[in-house]
Amino acid sequence: MTISRAEFPPGFLFGAATAAYQIEGSGFGGAGPCHWDTFAATPGNVVRAEDGARACDHYHRWPEDLDLMKSAGFDAYRFSTSWARVMPDGVKINPQGLDFYDRLVDSMLERGLKPFQTLYHWDMPSALADQGGWANRDTCHRFADFAEAITETLGSRVASIATINEPWCVAWLSHFMGIHAPGMRDIRATARVMHHILLAHGLAVERLRGMRQPNLGIVLNFDHAAPATDAPADHTAASLWDGIFNRWFIEGITRQTYPENVLAGLRPHMPQGWRDDMPTIGQPLDWLGVNYYTRHLHSHAAGTPWPHLRDVPGPLPKTQMGWEIYPDGLQTFLTRMARDYVGDLPIYVTENGMANADQLEDGTVTDRIREDYLFAHLRATKAAIEDGANVKGFFYWSLLDNYEWAEGYAKRFGLVHVDFETLKRTPKSSYHALRRAIARND
Ligand code: FCB
């Protein structure tokens, strides 16, 4: 069953998302080293130790990539501007980097694509990582400087700005679980980053509001948390995970508080005076971005330190990432955000998509499973709108197969297949299905 543009409110935006480090090629254009380059260079961190030095070579092939979005009929493009490209040492501007984004944004506008910019999609300049990265409070101020510098150049032409992509990944996944750069497993660093990443958001919003920049938001990710069994301890585990993943950041921003069940573990490690930062963190947003992929089942892990949790494989069909396919979770989060936190504020689905072991055969890729995933999640979005959530757009993750962080290049999320030898782009059947759906107006 397909879907059509006409089933969504007038003005609803369809688009795709990417991130700088995952597509551009960090080895080009005078970009400075970022913590992903060094993380990948350390054995055991990334599958086959692959890095983003060339990635999809979008740095040189961007006209073709923008044309692909135009031909798909997209209304908007969610992209990120790399901190390490614009400020290779974290402080001084690289004019070549700024020029790259300058041209990119002009060329989006020429093609009728609304530029949805993200300021931080994980390319922390190594010079700042050396000083402690997000565990160091000063980094929040450096980030506000970056936000200001790039907005001076691009601000009048972008349709919206997100400060941070996925604070949970920046903090928990990268400092507690050690899975993403900088690969730490340290509760004290985690607590600091859980807070500093929101402070960085708040300081950047303050700076950009001072420049009268409109349409400021943040992109949070959400993971449906369910108990593995009906045991009370598993319910407690799922609700703690919900606190860590789903409530911490949105409650910091909209209520200027953190969930008590999470503070119970992190409080001793929080940076001194953190409460004084809450008004900065809690400034009003213009919109909220929701990234959603999957759900997890949780159980109590007796005999382990706080948070006493482990996740248990679930029974639903899984993507190439091993993530269960659970579209209802998207409807639940969109509805929950509107009801409990942001009311009528515009919400965008800023990422949703699946990895699949796509095969290029006779010059084509048939990925019906991705078409089903995509349409099921578009229907979930529509259902949330019918529930009253003010959802204004949907960005598929991702336009291209790309560098999937610790998974390297093996996990393919794209609507467009990329041959990582030749860099040839081939639109998949899902690309064409989405193109037809958004061209339909009946
Ligand atoms: C999200 C990230 C994005 C991509 C997808 C699969 O967590 O924002 O860069 O890796 O997952």
Explain what you see.
The chain is of the alpha/beta class and 442 residues long. The chain has a single domain (5-437), classed as Glycosidases (TIM Barrel, Alpha-Beta Barrel), CATH 3.20.20.80. 40% of the residues lie in helices and 16% in strands. It is built from 15 helices and eleven strands. The strands form two sheets. An eight-stranded parallel barrel has the order 1-2-3-4-5-6-8-9, surrounded by six helices. α7 runs parallel beside α9. The longest helix is centred in the middle third of the chain and has 24 residues, at 187-210. It is globular. The chain starts with 12 loop residues before the first strand and ends with a helix.
Say what oligomer this is: single chain
Distance between the termini: 14 Å
Helix fraction, binned, reads 40-55%
CATH top-level class:
Alpha Beta
Query: Can you list the ligands bound to this structure?
Result: beta-D-fucopyranose
CATH architecture: Alpha-Beta Barrel
Regions with little confidence, pLDDT below 50 for 5+ residues: none
Domain unit count: 1
Which fold name is given in CATH as the topology? TIM Barrel
| Strand count | 11
Strand content: 15-25%
- Sketch the major β-sheet: 8 strands, parallel, barrel
Q: Averaging pLDDT over every residue, what do you get?
A: 98
Rg, alpha carbons? 20 Å
SSE pattern, N- to C-terminal: EHHHEHHEHHEHHEHHHEEHEHEEEH
CATH superfamily grouping = Glycosidases
Count, helices? 15
> What structural class do you assign from the helix and strand content?
alpha/beta
- Side by side, the strands of the main sheet go 1-2-3-4-5-6-8-9
Query: Which geometry do the CA atoms define?
Result: globular
